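Ubiquinone biosynthesis protein
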Amino acid sequence: MYRSAAKRLLHSLGAPLSNSSSNRIIRFRPLQSLISHSRFSTTVNSEPFVSQSPTYSDSTSSTADHTCRPRVEYQDEQARVLQASLPHVIRLGWSEAAMIAGARDVGVSPSIVGSFPRKEAALVEFFMDDCLQRLSDTIESSTEELRSLIPSERITKLVRIRLEMQAPYISKWPQALSIQAQPVNVPTSFKQRALLVDEIWHGAGDDTSDFDWYVKRTVLGGIYSTTEIYMLTDNSPNFCDTWAFLDNRVKDSFDLKKTIREATYLAEAVGAGMGSSLQGFVKSVFRG
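Predicted structure tokens:
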């Protein structure tokens, strides 16, 4: 009963779930399909399109094809621009400048950047979708390896894999968090993180169908977010201190009082718009 909402959400993303209780892995569509058709995607127009046919029996069908094809091709161009923009983020940040550079890399007019209503947010959300797809692919290809680990080790491994995807952009990630925290972007950010947490739990073999479904995802969301913030201040080689922090948080995950307190500190930091509150947030976690 408690899973029905999540199932409807994932069904709309084209993510059927396997029925095996021992290997419950989410199957996502390929990223291009996810971006083009997901009603939750904000990076490109999500309006559905009529399937095209190679032959037509009348002029009406030909006209319909003529109006649909340019829109589909334009969506493809938008996705290509966003993908090509990511390497420029390291130098230019999550910015319109990075998107313009990406457009030039793929031979598209920079004017296409004007088609994104929330330019910087579209780039961050594209990256989040891309990372979710890559994590899903990793889970699918590592099923046997994950089964050999105990649940806490599975969670630690999957959270680390996901956070390592952000490592190349770590100097610019505070900007991404600030963009996600803007009121107009919060709904999409929340949905993307909810899907991420759910994917990690399913990858860890969770098959909960009662109230624990919510508790587990709330706890994991707190663990993921506090580790993500810690990573921003970690100067250790290869983020080894971050992974030790993550391991300890997962081991302490059944101490709900402590985890909820850390999540409260995170909410306060995000509510303050990150910025100068970041250092104070990290100190608050350790004072607890």
